[in-house]
Amino acid sequence: MAQQVTTSEGEFGGRTAVVTGGASGIGLAVARELARRGARVCVLDVSAAALGGLPDGIEGLPCDVTDRESVNAALRGVEERFGRLDVLVNNAGIGAQGTVEDNGDEEWHRVLDVNVTGMARVSAAALPLLRRTAAEPEESAAGDGTGDAAAPGAAPRNRGVAVVNTCSVAATCGLPQRALYSASKGAVLALTRAMAADHIREGIRVNCVSPGTADTPWIGRLLAAAPDPAAERAALEARQPTGRLVSAEEVAAAVCYLAGPAAGATTGIELPVDGGMQGLRLRPAAD
């Protein structure tokens, strides 16, 4: 039975958000948190079965990010259902294990097509809707409550239009057995900064969130396939200074910050949610 999401007129009240890969894991946690904070949320996911199990209050549309026609059809569906788009969360992605010797050309093409090119496809299809929203006057930004349009040449007043991409600490930390995955997330980080530069004058902010090892279904499958799942989990936890895996809900909170009005002056950044993996170098714990 689908779980219901309780919403309120919070910081995202009146806004519409799209979350790709939003039917499970981090994406589902993001969709739930955006809805809880007042957004109208539409999940785009390749799994029709997973879309059927979305919580009440969250809508879903089928979308294969590797297929431009599927992406364009999904964004047309968003426009038809909601009439606007304020927030895009590019979360769809797949994992890969191994060194450069272990992944063949077909797997390289597949992972990059989902994790990088798919993100570009969705963003390109969403930009006309995002631009239209960004061009709307916003009373809170006008300062005088008139809602008058901005002066010619001025930056758009609506500061609530944002894109948040899901990156990873693998983009900046050298992790073993993650060559292909790391390359794809390094590209996501570069793409995020390029998009931020391209669209800042259109009133569209672009940032990314970089989770550490998160407690998601993908990690669950890796652990289940390990010879000793408990030992493998302990090893993953030990490489994070906090000594535990990151929760999907913690990543969702970071995404909502970057997508929300409190981050109105923030664009082109990577926000790590990694238990200290990137920044801390701790001494070994004493016995």
UniProtKB/TrEMBL annotation:
Residues 15-212 form the Ketoreductase domain. Gene3D superfamilies: NAD(P)-binding Rossmann-like Domain. Pfam families: adh_short (PF00106), adh_short_C2 (PF13561). Residues 135-155 are annotated as: Disordered. Keywords: Oxidoreductase. GO terms for molecular function: oxidoreductase activity. It comes from the Bacteria. SUPFAM superfamilies: NAD(P)-binding Rossmann-fold domains (SSF51735). Belongs to the short-chain dehydrogenases/reductases (SDR) family. PANTHER family: DIHYDROANTICAPSIN 7-DEHYDROGENASE (PTHR43477). This is Short-chain dehydrogenase.
